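Tutorial, part two.
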Amino acid sequence: MNYYTSVNNMTCKNCGHDESKCTFDEVVRRAKDLIKARGVASQALLTHELKISYSNAMRALDQLETDGLIGPTDGQKPREIFL
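Running the prediction step on this input gives:
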């Protein structure tokens, strides 16, 4: 199983990836799984791969930062990943 297959198979039991029906906890779980698989935490990655809005991607990143799973933003440098 390659990376793209594993990400595309991360199905949400509530919405089937329909953002309007997806709970925020599910968005955060999917974001965490994607960041762990890619080793990168960025808003662009989340909006593109998870097909979520900019605001939901930023909220998910903020939550993961609050939980201590990723580091804070530091200008142009990538965030640290602690997963």
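The chain has one domain: 23-83. In part three we will examine how such features are distributed along the chain.
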